[in-house]
Design goal:
The protein is about 40% helix and about 5% strand. By secondary structure, the chain is mainly alpha-helical. The strands form 3 sheets. Strands 1-2 form a two-stranded antiparallel ribbon.
Length: about 325
């Protein structure tokens, strides 16, 4: 995916640890009295490396959280994404070759299995609603908030806020789905600021590590989260850009689109004055039916040093045959 990612990691805000022992189940258990309250043991914390966070955001959708080629999008692809834990990956290519391939390699056409990628009217409506928001959003603040979110929140809440981060399964109760429209409608910015500052349940507060401006930026990014945002990020942002402005010509040529297709439009206010809702929905439906996708390459999005950090993270995973 195509994002601006934080260069300096903060301590991950989600926690993991053993579930507290229920009263009456231990070897020296006693019946609880009115004064006896089971106190959960303080959970342990884990600091994610920058390489791991970069991998989760940019690579895991296809290659999977464990880098075995079984990401959420893999089932829709007729060509299985590479298992990045193969022992020969780092012997077949040097690190320099891998960096060049990731940043500048020729785009790989990946056939899409339409039957494995169903879409509904609700998907079209969600994506249309997100597109219409693009010209109105405070992108500078959102990009800052995304950087902080990646460092402190992604590990539990996941890339798209659905509560499916790498540490979510270790928690005694699942993280809240921040992208759910019902939640977005019922929670106020003031309430979000309080939860982010003071914490709730297993989620620690951040008032001691984040400035007021950083916490407000996180709220701006959380407000971006929605089913439409996830669809746009997965299927549209590579060419149209995360903010609705198309990638530059050099990158489009790298993606093998500039020579075969028109330059993608800019989703600004003028665009939505020109095209009706019916035309917009027709275009979205056509996009969902495309017969292939393009494996993204990250020139202009990731630096060579960030790619090396992703490779360093992959080297920490136990190799497989």
């Amino acid at each position: 995916m195509w994002k601006m990612v934080l260069g300096i990691m903060l301590v991950v805000g989600c926690t993991s640890g053993p579930l507290p022992t229920r009263p009456g189940t231990g070897p020296s258990a006693q019946l609880p009295t009115e004064q006896t309250v089971a106190t959960p043991a303080p959970p342990a914390t884990r600091k994610f490396t920058q390489g791991e966070v970069l991998y989760i955001r940019h690579c895991a959708s296809c290659h999977g959280a464990a880098a075995r080629g079984d990401g959420a999008l893999a089932k829709a692809l007729e060509i299985q994404p590479r298992n990045l834990r193969r022992a020969d990956l780092f012997t077949q290519y040097s690190e320099a070759e891998l960096v060049v391939r990731i940043l500048h390699g020729k785009a790989l056409p990946v056939p899409l299995d339409p039957g494995a990628l169903p879409y509904t009217d609700a998907d079209v409506s969600a994506l249309s609603a997100h597109l219409r928001r693009l010209p109105t959003l405070p992108w500078e603040q959102i990009n800052q908030g995304e950087q902080v979110y990646d460092s402190l929140c992604l590990s539990c809440h996941g890339i798209y806020g659905r509560g499916d981060g790498p540490l979510a399964s270790t928690l005694s109760s699942p993280p809240r789905d921040l992208s759910a429209p019902s939640y977005q409608q019922q929670v106020t910015d003031k309430e979000l600021f309080h939860v982010i500052s003071e914490g709730r349940g297993a989620m620690p507060g951040t008032a001691d590590v984040l400035s007021v401006a950083e916490r407000e930026a996180v709220i701006a990014f959380v407000r971006l989260l929605s089913p439409g945002y996830e669809l746009y990020d997965r299927y549209c942002a590579a060419c149209h850009g995360p903010e609705g402005r198309p990638a530059d010509a050099a990158l489009l040529e790298l993606l093998d689109t500039a020579s075969s297709r028109e330059t993608p439009p800019t989703f600004d206010e003028e665009y939505f004055r020109t095209y009706s809702e019916k035309q917009l929905r027709t275009g979205i439906t056509h996009m969902f039916k495309l017969s292939r996708v393009i494996m993204p390459h990250f020139a202009g999005e990731l630096t060579a040093d960030q790619v090396r950090q992703i490779l360093s993270y992959l080297r920490t995973l136990p190799p497989e045959a």
